[in-house]
């Protein structure tokens, strides 16, 4: 009689095969901590100058090709300089469109507040967009100032614009006659909002505090 009963199904045969397999086929152990004896990938890359940098500090782009005979051919690629600042046209267009819509909204609200009769929407759109230089001035100013908005000097410009436009709008809406308010308020309000939006939040909050403090010092009412 056999000393061990033969496996009856596939599962038992697989279990028996796993038990009979040796564990010495793949040696187990911790990796060696000694330094490599041959060249590493970094050494090979430095020899082939794959990690070289240009004089301006930007990494050079090189195309490496292995020929059929085993030799390596490297071809440097020429690209446009990254120092050239291109105008973000889409960003400028979105900013300009938003400010133009804000200018039209303020114009509509001012005419609704101070006008002798309810303003007609379509003639007001024509007078504030087609027949007015305001949209073109907004587009020009945004194209010139917005791409450099994060620069400290431009932050100073926008902070000054926010404070001056805000205080001027408060003074005009409290002291000037209604015809002057109808002419000044849309432009001043647009400049005020634009200046605050372009600023970092802590500078924008400081400008709003300065504007509010100036209005309180002058005794103007905000409601």
List the helices and strands and how they pair.
Blueprint: H1 10-20, H2 41-47, E1 62-66, E2 72-76, H3 89-114, H4 121-130, H5 134-145, H6 152-175, H7 178-198, H8 201-218
Antiparallel strand pairs: 1-2
Number of strands: 2
Round the Cα radius of gyration to an integer and report it. 36 Å
Distance between the termini: 107 Å
Residues in helices, as a percent range:
55-70%
Physical arrangement of strands within the biggest beta sheet: 1-2
Outline the biggest β-sheet: 2 strands, antiparallel
Low-confidence stretches: 79-85
Number of helices: 8
| Average pLDDT score | 78
Q: Order of SSEs, N→C?
A: HHEEHHHHHH
Task: Please identify the structural class as seen in this structure.
Answer: mainly alpha
Percent of residues in beta strands: under 5%
Shape: elongated
Description:
This protein is 58% helix and 4% strand. It contains eight helices and two strands, in the order ααββαααααα. A two-stranded antiparallel sheet has the order 1-2. The protein is elongated and about 105 Å long. The N and C termini lie far apart (107 Å).
Briefly characterize the structure.
The chain is mainly alpha-helical.
Keywords:
two-stranded antiparallel sheet; mainly alpha
């Amino acid at each position: 009689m056999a000393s061990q009963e033969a496996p009856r199904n596939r599962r038992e045969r697989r279990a028996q095969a796993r038990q009979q397999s040796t564990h010495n086929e793949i040696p187990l152990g911790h990796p060696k901590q000694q330094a490599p004896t041959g060249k590493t990938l970094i050494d090979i890359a430095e020899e082939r100058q794959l990690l070289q940098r240009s004089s301006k500090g930007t990494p050079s782009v090189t195309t490496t090709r292995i020929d059929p005979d085993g030799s390596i051919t490297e071809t440097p690629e020429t690209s446009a300089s990254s120092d050239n600042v291109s105008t973000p046209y889409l960003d400028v267009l979105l900013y300009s469109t938003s400010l133009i819509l804000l200018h039209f909204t303020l114009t509509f609200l001012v005419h609704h507040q101070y006008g002798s009769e309810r303003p007609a929407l379509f003639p007001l759109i024509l007078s504030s967009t087609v027949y007015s230089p305001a949209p073109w001035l907004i587009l020009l100013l945004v194209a010139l100032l917005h791409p450099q908005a994060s620069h400290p000097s431009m932050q100073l410009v926008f902070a000054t614009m926010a404070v001056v436009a805000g205080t001027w709008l408060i003074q005009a809406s409290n002291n000037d006659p209604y015809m002057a308010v109808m002419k000044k308020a849309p432009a001043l309000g647009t400049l005020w909002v634009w200046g605050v939006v372009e600023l970092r939040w802590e500078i924008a909050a400081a400008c709003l505090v300065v504007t509010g403090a100036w209005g309180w010092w002058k005794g103007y009412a905000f409601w």
